[in-house]
Design goal:
The structure holds 2 protein chains of 2 kinds. Chain A is about 40% helix and about 25% strand. Chain A is an alpha/beta fold. In chain A, strand 8 and strand 9 form a beta hairpin. Chain B is about 75% helix and about 0% strand. The radius of gyration of chain B is 18 Å and the shape is globular. Classes of the chains: A alpha/beta, B mainly alpha.
């Protein structure tokens, strides 16, 4: 939408991401000053991603596997623009729908409906668009009259359903999914999968982080294996998962 | 943006029964205390002291509350900053906008006091929106300057709290300039917050449009604060999500 059809949907060009772990050590100006005086301002650097380059064409569905802490979620955060790459560049053409964690940033005092509205606006939809779709969102979430209750009264399943309903209410150009399908009852998971199938037919590019090898085999046409921030292997899901499962015990 | 402001206001007023009324009542009560204290204990004669005092309180509440709230706003919205790519400045900006709405609501009791004391309202009152805009620009600048700092260092919020209370006494909120001893007067005079306050107070209390020189200084200060704040915020905004 808006982007030329032949342009790649996602380009990661030598992306590295570094977390400076100074936060735990120097949480206050007082301590900062003390450290600075002693010349002991050292940071522990943690490179969550190192020189990752991936290009996704429109309609590609990339699965991302790797052990905990390998940089999978960081990769999604860089693609979505939540975090800026320390080195290298991430470019996305088109509208992104990021589902990074469950219950995207809800305000617990507001009702489900108000939160859905606010979140849709955060995702960059216009007020008019949201007005048009808010009915669908409520319907898809299956929350019924609960949408008028404050979110603090919701169960985690209800939060996940509402979050998913908001983010997927519009067909995105690029969808980022961080193992969300693991929650919710069977009925809701089925509804989600139907919606994702619809996106696939519409040509949405997918980046899917999961420990569920089966979902990756079923949903993806490409796959990368991240290991300590490096791309360890890249190719078809069959090949990469074969290598991955060969080394790591199945999670 | 508008949605964020309404959210802030709604969350603020939702759980207290007195809600809106509180915003109006609180400055009135503070004024009551000040009137009692200053007209009986420390005596100075200022015509229509309640009006003088209330304009100061309204301005100061807006300024200090907006600054503290902008500093907290980024952390309070950490969940959103971690999950949705939004321009980070919307949070402090929305905070200051809610502050302006609160300030306008708090003008209602001021009008009541004006009627009760029979203080004349002159046409210069029409200048008030401009004064509020200048105050908002200045406050937003300070908020943008301080809010990334508050994310990187948790003790900044307390330090600013102390600085604000010192600043409050250096600003002629409760007292007139005339009672300030000579050796201290310089501090009060060169306090930028005083300039902004006077632009706000002139149309209400003195019923006059602020003199051009005063206004230019105040506007210049506001513009300077805003520019500095915007630059500082821009420089740091990419780092914010790592720290909240």
């Amino acid at each position: 939408m808006g982007a030329p059809h032949d342009a790649p949907a996602v380009v990661l060009d030598g992306v590295s991401l570094c977390y400076r772990l100074a936060r735990q050590r120097i949480p206050s100006i007082k301590e900062y000053a003390l450290h600075w005086i002693r010349g002991a301002l050292t940071y522990q650097e943690l490179w969550a991603l190192r020189d990752v380059s991936v290009t996704l064409r429109r309609g590609d569905r990339l699965g991302v596997v790797g052990a905990n802490g390998a940089g999978k979620s960081s990769l999604l955060k860089v693609i979505s623009g939540v975090l800026k790459a320390t080195q290298g560049r991430a470019t996305v053409n088109g509208r992104i729908a990021p589902i990074l964690e469950l219950g995207i940033g809800f305000d617990y005092e507001l009702t489900g409906l108000e939160n859905a509205y606010l979140n849709a606006l955060f995702l960059g939809h216009s007020r008019k668009d949201v007005d048009e779709r808010i009915g669908d969102i409520v319907e898809f979430s299956g929350l019924g009259d609960f949408v008028h209750s404050p979110v603090r009264t919701y169960s985690s399943g209800m939060l996940a359903r509402l979050g998913f309903a908001v983010v997927t209410a519009w067909v995105p150009d690029v969808l980022l999914l961080d193992e969300v399908l693991a929650v919710g009852d069977v009925h809701f998971v089925k509804k989600c999968e139907e919606r994702l199938d619809g996106f696939r037919r519409a040509g949405t590019t997918l980046v899917f982080v999961s420990h569920a090898m089966e979902s990756i085999r079923r949903n993806c046409n490409r796959c990368i294996w991240l290991d300590k921030g490096h791309v360890r292997a890249e190719g078809s899901p069959e090949d990469v998962l074969g290598l991955y499962e060969g080394e790591a015990p199945p999670a | 943006m508008v949605a964020l402001v309404t959210r802030d206001l709604r969350v603020r007023y939702k759980r207290s029964a007195l809600g809106l009324l509180w915003t109006m009542l609180q400055p009135l009560l503070t004024m009551g205390v000040m009137v009692l204290v200053f007209s009986s204990i420390f005596r100075f004669d200022l015509p229509q002291y309640p009006v003088y005092c209330l304009t100061g309180i309204l301005f100061w509440n807006f300024f200090s509350q907006s600054i503290v709230a902008s500093m907290v706003s980024l952390r309070a919205n950490a969940a959103i900053l971690h999950k949705v790519p939004v321009p980070k400045a919307v949070f402090p900006v929305a905070t200051v906008c809610s502050g302006v709405v609160n300030l306008c609501l708090a003008l209602v009791p001021l009008v009541v006091i004006l009627l009760v004391t029979g203080h004349p309202l002159r046409p210069a009152i029409l200048f008030l929106p401009v004064a509020i805009l200048v105050a908002a620009l200045f406050t937003l600048g300070m908020g943008l300057l301080l809010s990334p700092l508050a994310v990187f260092f948790t003790d900044v919020v307390e330090m600013v709290g102390v600085a604000l209370s010192l600043l409050m006494y250096l600003t002629p909120i409760f007292y007139p300039m005339a009672i300030v001893p000579d050796h201290l007067r310089m501090f009060v005079r060169f306090n930028p917050v005083r300039s902004i306050l006077e632009v706000f107070r002139d149309p209400i209390y003195f019923g006059k449009i602020p003199p051009l020189t005063h206004f230019t200084v105040a506007f210049g200060l506001a513009l300077l604060a805003f520019t500095l704040g915007a630059l500082a915020f821009k420089r740091n905004s990419d780092r914010i999500p790592f720290y909240v």
